[in-house]
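Ops channel
N.P.: pipeline sanity check, posting one input/output pair.
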């Protein structure tokens, strides 16, 4: 589905290309799924599109090849899990910076999540940045600017990607998805303004899933065996903890009368209201603190099933 909120950045790149002022390395920084990778691909199209007008056409053979990640001059490496990319791979890709492109105007090398680079890889990248080439463009992305080497940052033009305001994101989602307003609203709030994440939530049936979890955990209570299943793998556990956290956060917002605008589970307002009425403010804060501790344990790779069973036993279902 083609909805992109970073039209402004793409527009800016078009101006840079027209004025022949395109730099050799850019670093896109922003939250996970905030559209950095998508924008990098859009820029590769912009540089190489065969029928460029206001923007790239997204129909010509070049645009289609880039979209399908099969263009020989547009190379993407996703470094999400750091160590899994070997230094030889990085060196091999970076060595292409100096070569003439096979068929494109300019070779575009996109490297995502450079914060996970090993020292060795970061040094290889730095060496490439120190010896720029006119035939290639490097687009790097990070969701943690602090972790990137200063020497790398100082050699790139940095663009910051901000989360979108709720109304704006709901508007964009409406263009692409024929879904109930409460589902769009939930996906926007839960993704914290990240278009990419909101799309994943909508396409993966997350809305229905989170409601099942809320029904079980908050309204019916989960027994030990069911809990084991909920915590079967990392992804399930993470989702489970995050859903319960957002629920308790919503309950506290309602309790303190902080207004309805920031409530994530708008679709369950009646349930949320009766839930928070069963607890005092201190009790709700206690539950939330308990969950924060569990989250920390999970991040430190501890088994959280006993703690989750305790949390369940504290709920008045
Ligand atoms: Zn095109």
């Amino acid at each position: 589905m083609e909805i992109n909120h970073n039209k402004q950045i793409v527009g800016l790149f078009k101006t840079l290309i027209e004025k022949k002022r395109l730099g050799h390395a850019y670093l896109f920084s922003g939250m996970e799924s905030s559209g950095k990778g998508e924008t990098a691909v859009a820029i590769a199209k912009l540089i190489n599109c065969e029928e460029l007008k206001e923007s790239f056409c997204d129909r010509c053979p070049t645009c289609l090849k880039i979209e399908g990640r099969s263009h020989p001059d547009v190379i993407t490496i996703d470094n999400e899990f750091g160590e899994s990319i070997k230094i030889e791979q990085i060196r091999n890709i970076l060595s292409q910076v100096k070569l003439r492109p096979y068929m494109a105007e300019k070779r575009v090398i996109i490297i995502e999540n450079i914060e996970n680079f090993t020292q060795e890889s970061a040094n290889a990248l730095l060496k490439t940045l120190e010896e720029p080439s006119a035939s290639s463009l490097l687009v790097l992305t990070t969701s943690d600017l602090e972790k990137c080497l200063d020497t790398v940052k100082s050699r790139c033009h940095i663009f910051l990607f901000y989360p979108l305001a709720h109304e704006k994101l709901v508007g964009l989602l409406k263009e692409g998805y024929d879904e109930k307003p409460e589902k769009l609203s939930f996906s926007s709030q839960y993704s914290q303004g990240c278009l990419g994440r909101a799309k994943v939530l909508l396409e993966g049936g997350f809305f229905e899933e989170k409601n099942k979890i809320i029904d079980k955990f908050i309204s019916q209570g989960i027994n030990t065996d069911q809990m084991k299943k909920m915590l079967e793998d990392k992804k399930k556990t993470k989702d489970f903890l995050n859903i319960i956290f957002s629920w308790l956060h919503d309950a506290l917002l309602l309790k303190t009368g902080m207004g309805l605008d920031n409530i994530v589970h708008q679709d369950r307002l009646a349930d949320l209201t009766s839930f928070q009425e069963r607890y005092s403010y201190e009790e709700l804060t206690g539950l939330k603190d308990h969950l924060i501790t569990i989250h920390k344990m999970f991040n430190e790779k501890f088994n959280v099933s006993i703690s989750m069973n305790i949390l369940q036993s504290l709920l008045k279902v």
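N.P.: looks fine end to end. The chain has two domains: 7-161, 205-314.
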